[in-house]
Amino acid sequence: MLKKLLVIGLMAASAHTIGFAANHEIKMLDNGTDGSIVFEPGFVKAEVGDTVTFIPTNKGHWTQSRVVPEGAEKFLSEEDKEFTVKLTNEGVYVYVCPPHRMMNMSGIIQVGKATNKEQAEKMVVELEKRANDNKGRLAKYFEQVK
Prior knowledge:
Helix content: 25-40%
Shape: globular
CATH architecture: Sandwich
CATH topology: Immunoglobulin-like
Strand content: 25-35%
Number of domains: 1
């Protein structure tokens, strides 16, 4: 019985690495919990192999990566189109909605360890400096990076 429980426990623990990757959904909103012109959630913690689907809940939004971990491909979606990106590399991904960058419509995905935390932090500082509205929101998301 103990052996059977151990096998079941090991199978459950390894399910993520065997192919049961998660899909995280991020909505692109005009108004959300964190204010106006926002990705929701603005911070996602994921694992290598997971996917993120950006959902254009309101019109006029798309997403573009500004920082990706070494070896990961940058991404750019089309306006008003659902877009899925596979997270292939460990690290921090910083992204924006290009037409709403000045309104600090940006977010962070951490995949595993924050291997490029310093590079991501520089981009967060840069984006916060250039934001006219919603100042501090991206910095708040970045505080969750560990």
